[in-house]
Structure formats: C-alpha cells, structure tokens
Amino acid sequence: MQLAWTPVANVTAAEAVSVLQALGLEYGAPLVLKSDNGSAFKSGDFGAWLTEHQVVPLLSPVRVPRYNGACEAGIGAAKRRTEYLAARQGHYLDWTTDDLHAAQRWANEASYPGGFAAGTPASRFAARVPINDIERDTFRTAGLQYERELNHEACTRGDALTDMLLAIHHRRAVRHVLVEHGYLDITRRSVPQPLPAKKCAKIK
C-alpha cells in the first residue's frame, strides 16, 4: 500500500516528519519504519518523532541499496506510472500534484501485486488489524531482548561491538521479532546467478 507519493521542497527531516505526522494521524504510527541512511532519517528530529510514537527504526546497511530493494522498486514503479499519466496529459517532464495522486490511486486501487485473488493493496490495507499499544510495547521489548542476546553472544566470542556489528544485530533482531510475532512472512526462492562471459562462450 502506497500511503504517500508527495512532492517536497527539500529532503530534510522537517519534511519527512511532516509527512509522517499526517500519515500517523490518519492511519496510526507504523510498528517499524524502514529507510536508507539519508541524513534526514538519521537526524535528531526524525529520531525524536520515532521515539515519541514508539516506532522502531530499521536502517539499511550503508551502501547496500539491494537491501532496500522493495522500496526502490516501489519508487521506480510510482515514477513510471506518473510519467505515463503526465504524458497522456501532454506534460511528460512536468508532473503535477494531480499526476502524483492519480499514480498513487492506480497503484493502490487498480493493481494486484499478490495476484487477483489477494485483492488490491487498498483492500488488503483496509482489512488490516491496527496495532494496539500493548502489542507495540511487547514487540519493542522482545526486539531489545533479542538484540541484547546477540550482543552478549558476540562479547562471549570476543568480538568487538563496533557500530557496524551493533547495526547488524539490530536488523537481525527486528527481522526475528517481526517473524516470531507473525507480522512478517518470508518466502524464499532460488535466484539464478548470471553466467560469466567465458562460460557463455562455451555454450553451444
């Protein structure tokens, strides 16, 4: 479900918090917020908003865009829809707010990413059960506990708790608790690796 496809004047924490504040009032605060390592998402103001609303941050590893693949793919699809709609109105490179809103409605109400039987993103989102305060607190407590266990195991092995290792443990803890509490389903499939050029040349 694409909750926002909104133009902003600058990529700042203030702009991000403004969008999140509006979405939070309408839909409630998220349980986990996944983002890249942009300065806006690592600022004190942004962190304060997350803390105030008990939202667990989930930052991607530095310089690993594929970790954020679903988000990147969603942005790419939103851009293509907007370009198509703008072109139909005769302003391919000059998007309007109407184009953005139409692209968002298209994604939410006229697409079936999980198959036709699964319904549209809008219908699935409408059927969700909102997270209550007890569930939110339980989730955060379980995540912190699992993260402490990972840190303790690392210290027992003699590993230095560097910022990178702490970040890895945080991501592992968030993923573990999301799955354990039934908020996240993971489907694995084999992904064929690209063949080297030399090997391709030998294939007849």
Strand and helix map with partners:
Layout: H1 13-27, E1 32-35, H2 44-52, E2 56-59, H3 69-88, H4 97-109, H5 121-126, H6 133-157, H7 163-180, H8 197-202
Parallel strand pairs: 1-2
Helix pairs in contact: 1-2, 3-4, 6-7
InterPro entries: Integrase_cat-core, RNaseH-like_sf, RNaseH_sf
Domain Integrase catalytic: 1-129
GO biological process, one term: DNA integration
Summarize the structure.
With 204 residues, the protein is mainly alpha-helical.
Q: How far apart, in Å, are the first and last alpha carbons?
A: 46 Å
**SS field, number of helical segments:** 8
Structural class label:
mainly alpha
Strand arrangement across the biggest beta sheet: 1-2
InterPro entries: Integrase_cat-core, RNaseH-like_sf, RNaseH_sf
GO biological process, one term: DNA integration
GO molecular function, one term: nucleic acid binding
Organism: Blastopirellula marina
What does it look like?
This protein has three domains: 7-59, Ribonuclease H-like superfamily/Ribonuclease H (Nucleotidyltransferase, domain 5, 2-Layer Sandwich), CATH 3.30.420.10; 65-130, no CATH class; 133-180, no CATH class. It has eight helices and two strands, in the order αβαβαααααα. It has helices at residues 13-27, 44-52, 69-88, 97-109, 121-126, 133-157, 163-180, 197-202, and strands at residues 32-35, 56-59. It has a two-stranded parallel ribbon. The longest helix is centred in the C-terminal third of the chain and has 25 residues, at 133-157. The chain is globular, with a radius of gyration of 20 Å. It comes from Blastopirellula marina. Residues 1-129 form the Integrase catalytic domain. InterPro entries: Integrase_cat-core, RNaseH-like_sf, RNaseH_sf. GO terms for molecular function: nucleic acid binding.
